[in-house]
């Protein structure tokens, strides 16, 4: 799936552990302060490294944030388990992981601010387009297999699924949230039951 990418700056061979710490710190800083408070110095301090280490890898804070978003956020991607229910459960679990996981604040900030961040907006738009087409492909496969009627509104079904998963992740206290996989199954079963009930009504 298409995602955000940024070429690293020149320097020594990369240490994957350091890269992970930097990406984690960058997402935490962006989630806490937004773009206005996102600075190389702050990320370096949060990651426990020297600022020079960052500049050996990325020449700008735009490139650093792009890398962190590309490597640290849960991706909403196409999946094909062989059944519509299985595919939708996987899709719901991905959304729950994105907005309920450790990078949830950064994901939410991104939806609000991505369009105004130089060098990030274009990549974010491409990522969202890929996610949109992947989600619709899941439903179209279900229609092609006869698991959904052709008359079903793909947009309404996906809006309901994504909105339900996102709101659960954002509004339910973390200590009261059930296992994401279990909640994804309950959400999909509820949605599909309602979909077929509406379709079968005279």
UniProtKB/TrEMBL annotation:
Q: Extract the InterPro entries matched here.
A: Homeodomain-like_sf, HTH-type_TetR-like_transc_reg, HTH_TetR, Tet_transcr_reg_TetR-rel_C_sf, TetR_C
The record's keywords, sorted A to Z, are: DNA-binding, Transcription, Transcription regulation
DNA-binding region positions on the chain: 39-58
- Residue ranges of the HTH tetR-type domain? 16-76
Family annotation (Pfam families)? TetR_C_11, TetR_N
What PROSITE patterns would the database entry show? HTH_TETR_2 (PS50977)
Q: Please list the GO terms describing molecular function.
A: DNA-binding transcription factor activity; transcription cis-regulatory region binding
Protein name as it appears in the record: Putative TetR-family transcriptional regulator
